Amino acid sequence: MTNSNVVLHVADVHKRFGGLHALADIDLQVEEGQTHAIIGPNGAGKSTLLNVIIGKLAPTSGAVVFDGTVLTGKKPYQINQLGIARVFQTPEIFADLSVLQNVMIPALAKRDGAFKLNMLRTLESETEIRAEAEHMLEDVGMISRREMAAGSLSRGDKRRMELAMCLIQRPRLLLLDEPTAGMSRHDTNTTIELLKKIKSRGMTKVIIEHDMHVVFSLADKISVLAQGRIIADGTPDQVRGNPKVQEAYLGGAH
Amino acid sequence: MLTMPRNDLLLFLGFAIAVLTMPIWMAPFGAAYPDLLQRFMIYGLFALGFNILFGLTGYLSFGHAAFFGVGSYAAVWSMKLLTIDALPAMIFALIISGIFALAIGYVSLRRSGIYFSILTLAFAQMSYNLAYSVLTPITNGETGLQLNINDPRYLDRMFSAATPSVPSPTMLGLPLTGFTGFYFCAGFLIIAFFIAQRITGSPFGMMLKGIKSNQTRMNYTGFNTRPYTLAAFVISGMYAGLAGSLLAITDPLAGAERMQWTASGEVVLMTILGGAGTLVGPVIGAWLIKYFENIFSAINENMLARFWDFLPDGLDHAAVVVSAKFVGEGWFLTLGLVFVLIVVFLPGGIMEGVRRIASWIDRNRKSTPKSASPKTQPAE
């Protein structure tokens, strides 16, 4: 069932909250190097699906398999150590630390693992980690803000920094939960540009989004979720052409 | 490996000098006597360690006095059973308080926020009650554990005969009384400060700050935060144990009241008053509170009458009556007022006040062109 190209396999996942069937019969295969978008109206179960993948929620039945490893039952930090990073709908950052420190911390997690009693070194002596972080910030165009407190950044910059925090770990799979939610047009566009830029690096991405502009400019493959079920699957053109999808979700907009 | 950034080194040297010269610069404040200065050192050490958990990691423990008390008991027992020398007593106290902190931390750290605080408070009150009544054979209950002429002191007996009187603690034969006792404690405060500084500046310290700032992000960044918080808990518990053992060494009596919740609350006050999350702040907070406790509580109405003597008759009497409420037994009133003022106007404690003054001076100096090099202030 799983072919060699598939890096993430969501296999027959069901999720119930009491009487609510939030996810039903979800079967999703994400191929290596692709950007796979999951779209759907509010309440379709997009965020639930993402939380099941990342280990925040346990599926009622079914399993999530990443590169041959079953993720179900693992803790978020274990899932991250396997090479999965996540961008949140509201940026989860270290608001009281500097931008540079924000990016250095994930680099240390990548190098030192889930726990290391690293008390004898000073942060200043971590020159490779610092150089790596500075390089990353240069990449996302934030090097001039490296000494600023992260909490004082604009929303768009917080998102860019959060992306840098994920990218510095060179994850095999990047999960993005509505990366442009609540952003101005300008910030949305810079974020799309950045995502396009990292796309060329061959990182696998799963992106949840309701902004069609974002989805169609980034995705290789789209799955359409409605009422907890996948109702359509395919390339952007196939999905755009699918009458069922058009009728239900895109009809008004396109 | 043990190189230090220049600013850290300056801070360390400044701190060490300030501590060692305390008998001189505390004299004008009437606090330059060894007994009080020792307490400054001991409670400074206690607050310094507490800050590693509260200031750095963001976990507010309301039961740290338990470790302080355990350290005291362990030290007295070492001096009763093994030797009157201070070093084994301290090592023993460090080990016992570390184990104790490991057990309490392991359970308490399953929760965070207010639930964590309540759990630590519950454990500390349990410890207090155990010490006060249940474990009387170990703690000597209400009376408190003290040295006795009949104590075995097995290690000492191997080298010399029993002394005719109760011995007082020594370090390698040096009696720890008067200013020797102060410098003994000061040495350990300085070492402890150095270690706290290293922890704060290390990648491990960075992780603790990350946990305080955003634990969710830490988890999704691949960190197992539990061992980090547990390590911070144990380290700060051992600091408390060390402080407790020093108190037992300079005054060989361990009582249960040391573990009561008021004692746990006091170290929280010290840390917030001085500035949680800063290195020097908690120590200054501890000094201030101990100063108030000893100096303000010693002021009586006669002293106040002399102080207000310059006022006209009647008025001076009123001044004495009003101000008497704030001294002596009422020193807590003064402390409470100071605490309220600090928290309302300087939420970052005394250290925030220092920072504000420093940046104000800096701004004024900036008017002269090209003065200091524009230093970027790291976000903290």
CATH hierarchy class name of the largest domain in chain A: Alpha Beta
Mind summarizing the main beta sheet of chain B?
2 strands, antiparallel
Beta-strand residue fraction of chain B: under 5%
| SS element count, helices of chain A | 9
Organism (chain B): Devosia limi DSM 17137
GO molecular function, one term (chain B): branched-chain amino acid transmembrane transporter activity
Keywords (chain B): Cell membrane, Membrane, Transmembrane, Transmembrane helix
Main location (chain B): membrane
Task: Give a verbal description of the structure.
Chain B: It is a multi-pass membrane protein. Chain B: It holds the Pfam family BPD_transp_2. Chain B: GO terms for molecular function: branched-chain amino acid transmembrane transporter activity. Chain B: This is ABC transporter permease. The complex is a heterodimer of chains A (254) and B (380). Chain A is α/β, with parallel strands linked by helices and 254 residues long. Chain A folds into two domains: 1-83 and 171-186 and 203-254, 3-Layer(aba) Sandwich (Rossmann fold); 96-170, no CATH class. Chain A is 36% helix and 25% strand. In chain A, the strands form two sheets. Chain A has a six-stranded mixed β-sheet with strand order 6-7-8-3-9-10, sandwiched between helices. Chain A has a four-stranded antiparallel β-sheet with strand order 2-1-4-5, covered by helices on one side. In chain A, strand 4 (61-66) and strand 5 form a beta hairpin. In chain A, helix 5 packs parallel to helix 6 (185-199). Chain B has 380 residues and is mainly alpha-helical. Chain B has a domain at 7-260: ABC transporter involved in vitamin B12 uptake, BtuC (Orthogonal Bundle), CATH 1.10.3470. Chain B is 68% helix and 2% strand. Chain B has 18 helices and four strands. Chain B has helices at residues 6-20, 22-25, 34-56, 65-81, 86-108, 113-134, 136-139, 154-159, 178-201, 203-213, 215-220, 225-250, 261-274, 281-295, 301-307, 315-324, 331-345, 349-366; strands at 145-146, 170-171, 174-175, 253-254. Chain B starts with 5 loop residues before the first helix and ends in a 14-residue tail after the last helix. The chains are: A alpha/beta (254), B mainly alpha (380). The A-B interface holds A 54, 75-77, 80-81, 85-86, 88, 92-98, 101, 104-106, 108-110, 112-126, 147-150, 165, 169 and B 1-5, 8, 198-199, 201-207, 209-210, 212-214, 216-225, 227-228, 231, 376-380.
